[in-house]
Amino acid sequence: MSELDDTGDGKTKKKRGRPGRPPAPSKKPRKSPSEKGPMGVQRGRKANGMAQQNGEGDPVTLFEVVKQGKSAMQSVVDDWIESYRQDRDLALLDLINFFIQCSGCKGTVRIEMFRNMQNAEIIRKMTEEFDEDSGDYPLTISGPLWKKFRYNFCEFICVLIRQCQYSIIYDEYMMDTVISLLTGLSDSQVRAFRHTSTLAAMKLMTALVNVALNLSINQDNTQRQYEAERNKMAGKRANEKLELLLQRRKELQENQDEIENMMNSIFKGIFVHRYRDAIAEIRAICIEEIGVWMKMYSDAFLNDSYLKYVGWTLHDRQGEVRLKCLKALQNLYTNRELFPKLELFTNRFKDRIVSMTLDKEYDVAVEAIRLVTLILQGSEDALSNEDCENVYHLVYSAHRPVAVAAGEFLHRKLFSRHDPQAEEALAKRRGRSSPNGNLIRMLVLFFLESELHEHAAYLVDSLWESSQELLKDWECMTELLLEEPVQGEEVLLDRQESALIELTVCTIRQAAEAHPPVGRGTGKRVLTAKERKMQIDDKNKLTEHFIMALPMLLSKYQTDAEKVANLLQIPQYFDLDVYSAGRMEKHLEALLKQIKFVVEKHTDTEVLEACSKTYCILCSEEYTIMNRVDIAHSQLIDELADRFSHSVEELLQAGEEADDDDIYNVLSTLKRLTAFHNAHDLTRWDLFGNCYRLLRTGIEQGSMPEQIAVQALQCSHYSILWQLVKITEGAPSKAFMLLCDLLMIFSHQLTTGSREGLQPLVFNPDSTLQNELLNFILDHVFIDQDDENQSMEGDEEDEANKIEALHKRRNLLAAFSKLIIYDIVDMPAAADIFKHYMKYYNDYGDIIKETLSKTRQTDKILCAKTLILSLQQLFNELIQDQGPNLDRTSSHVSGIKELARRFALTFGLDQIKTREAVATLHKDGIEFAFKYQNPKGPEYPPPNLAFLEVLCEFSSKLLRQDKKTVHSYLENFMTEQMMERREDIWLPLISYRNSLLTGGDEDRMSITSGSSSSKGGSIRSKKVSSHGLFCVWCRGSAEESVEGSWMIRNDTLQTPGALQTPQLTSTVLRENPRQAAEHLSEQNSEPGSESDYVHKRGLMEDDAEPIFEDVMMSSRGQLEDMSEEFEDTMVIDLPPSRNRRERAELRPDFFDSAAMIEDESVRL
């Protein structure tokens, strides 16, 4: 039992009172009753509202002073102590209210409550005034200000106890009140009270432990002084000094008893309850602080009575708490002098600690491994072999911090030299330059025994930080591989040599690249200057060594495919300038000679590809050795190509009588050439011709061996690819057209018509490829004529050249638009095309209109979203150019509004048919306008508010009742201040609101020709007026539930695939779009005719709709106005199909709250 557990016999110690209870009768009074007054029976009170005077004379509470953190905590505490000496009730009231305010409570303990109410009553009163639903409280709010406040909060408590340790804490008033208050708050049901009081109590306990430690030290010093004085001779002994020392020792003992009594009150009243609190953060606070106590005052706290709490909490459900336990134990195990006191704890909880190395929380696992490493350092016998093996395999973990921690453990256990001097002497006797031979052998054995040979890079990376000196000892590794074994030393087995070579290559890669292998980490981080310098030095070191050693290693192991394939990876990490700078060309010749021998001896694909890659690296144009290597490479290919040509002739002449030697000669040579053709352009050797002869013979005679056919196909494939590279290097436009055709051919349309077997050939371009295609169009199509003229090298600026260049650009745009129309490229990509409609109308207007038409047939809603997106992009570009304060009268703003007006006209006059799409457009436009708040404050308009002026152009396409609902949706984003503003800067909002509130009578239904169409129109009108598309949000009728299935249409956009499968013809051969448009206009010369109807049905299938829906109008002027805006407006009167009737049915409110919650905007 520790001295803290021994509560004594009550001679001089106080018994701490619980909140709301009278003081214990055995309490020893130190102050007169007049001093205690009515507070003598009130120990647990709170207050935080009492004001102090700051330097400027303004009243500031203690909470505000600590929160601001402008004054040093020492001076803050000194000011409080001074106020306590003047009026301790008011000072304590300020301190108590400080704790209340730190909990986020808005209530304040008044002086009357402090003097007349019990603790429980005060806490109940504060609880009633506490709004726990308000969210975070000061100690949990994120941000630098509140993080600093938490630090100041803890520092204030520590400094307060330190400054009061000689007098005030022993007055039986302040500490009684504070401890009783914190004890009561720690039992509160309010989380903030519990958290704040626990943190304060634990920091208070830590400060008291420090005081107790100082008292213990002073007691020991006083006792030694007393013993020394008493042992003096009677004549030299000073009796007065003895009496003073005896009196001082007695006072120190009394103070020690008082401090122990306070600590026992906090520990038993708060800690033992809160270390198992329901809130993980509170539990973590308790465990963190008890670790501090055990380390700070180990004589009193480092025993099983306190260690058991840490041990029990190792099983906590929350990783945060387990982490605090491990860190607390690490601080103890770091001090080897404390190991004897931890022996029983280690035996009891060692298994749990070892099992935590596999914790699901990586941070916890890392700290557990580090703790096990500390235990190993303190006592190697503490861990069994099984315990160590549980940690060993973690060096192969994909999580790098876990693996590095395990590598540190492995280094301490296996790779630390126990007697460096003896090992160095042994290395000298054996003629080796490095004493690490045995350690490297042990590393190889560990790697082989782990049976994870493919993870050598992971093992090296795990040991890199702890065993870097060992892993960079390439001289020792090379000596082990090249030298003959010394007598009495075990010879490296073949598998051990292979493992050592693999580990050597991995260490070279780690040193040269200076980043973890694939699968470890989140990518390459930026190296510091020190790390960069180390990387350069390591690269130079390994290059200088292996330039000389690699040819010898290849010579020794040239017949072993696995070893050679690994060794040939080394040159890619060389600093090749060393060959020239160090005059080491003879070593380069030796390397090239060995590589040639390897190529001639092996047909293994991995070895040949390694040779090919090595040649490719050495042939880099940036190095001066390129010419020398290129000559050697060309000579090798010449020999292989001649051999291949002769062997093919012999094989074809022999025909069916060809023997195994003929087949082997062709196959082995073809394998070598195929491997080199992958990385090198061998087209000048015309390998395709002989490969084609082999394939044709196999097809005609059916006697060609399968392996030869496969290799011939592979070699032909590489030859075609290299030819394609040459073709496309100077003609990006041709490459673009070819790529578009390939995407069209191998699109999802490939499987239509019962061709599901072709599904493996379907290729869907990812977002990266789609963005590259779009960027190419923006860079090469939408350019000014002047830019095009400048790019035409040597061509005269004549009409022929301009027309030809325009025709090429139109072909590019048509090819990309085709990908959008047939849902190969996502439709939102068309926004960058649509936004150029006005600027490039003369050049590409017909293509863009046709694209808009076809995309609307595919999906009206997504097409509307794309239109509004294009306008938003133009608006954002304008904001970036001109800043947030736009000139609404400028030509740029007018241009965007004019484009919006053109887009609005494309919706036609049948508002029922376009109702859903127009609603989507307004919804997205409103959300964009209010997307960002003005940084200057809510009284200023949002930066995108001017976009509402563009959105006004679409208001006429809304039905009357829809305008009201859109207006209601708009009001959800508006504040009362916005509704009242009338300044010019708010005119876009005013204009948009007016467009929604006025003009409702001008809404017209679509009028179709013929009596039947007129009847249909009247029926629709009745339905709309009786129900309306946009239901009231609060309505909960059965009608809304029935129609609710339509509500999510915007969220689950489906492409109906209304378009026919395109003919698989090259875009380059496509008919001139202008001629096609003229041909189409001739067919449409008689609108409404039978031939026109049949033609249109063929284009759009059953459910298709034209982009422009003109109607017979009573006013010829309106018709002429429409014709003036769109020259090719089509007058089509289609009979109402089943799908068209479904679209005319009533639909639920597009702006319904449920729809808004579930809406997922199309990703762009």
UniProtKB/TrEMBL annotation:
SUPFAM superfamilies the UniProt entry points to: ARM repeat
Primary localisation category: nucleus
Pfam family membership, one: SCD
Keyword list, A-Z: Cell cycle, Cell division, Chromosome, Chromosome partition, Coiled coil, Nucleus
Spans through the membrane: none
Every SCD domain range: 271-356
Biased amino acid composition, Low complexity: 1006-1019
CC annotations in GO: chromatin; chromosome, centromeric region; cohesin complex; nucleus
Top-level taxonomic group: Eukaryota
Keyword Cell cycle: yes
GO biological process, one term: cell division
Coiled-coil stretches noted in the UniProt entry, renumbered to this chain: 235-265
Residue ranges of the region described as Disordered: 1-58, 1001-1021, 1073-1094
GO molecular function: chromatin binding
Subcellular compartments: Nucleus; Chromosome; Chromosome, Centromere
Subunit details: Part of the cohesin complex which is composed of a heterodimer between a SMC1 protein (SMC1A or SMC1B) and SMC3, which are attached via their hinge domain, and RAD21 which link them at their heads, and one STAG protein.
Family of the protein in this entry: Belongs to the SCC3 family.
Functional summary from the UniProt entry: Component of cohesin complex, a complex required for the cohesion of sister chromatids after DNA replication. The cohesin complex apparently forms a large proteinaceous ring within which sister chromatids can be trapped. At anaphase, the complex is cleaved and dissociates from chromatin, allowing sister chromatids to segregate.
Protein name: Cohesin subunit SA
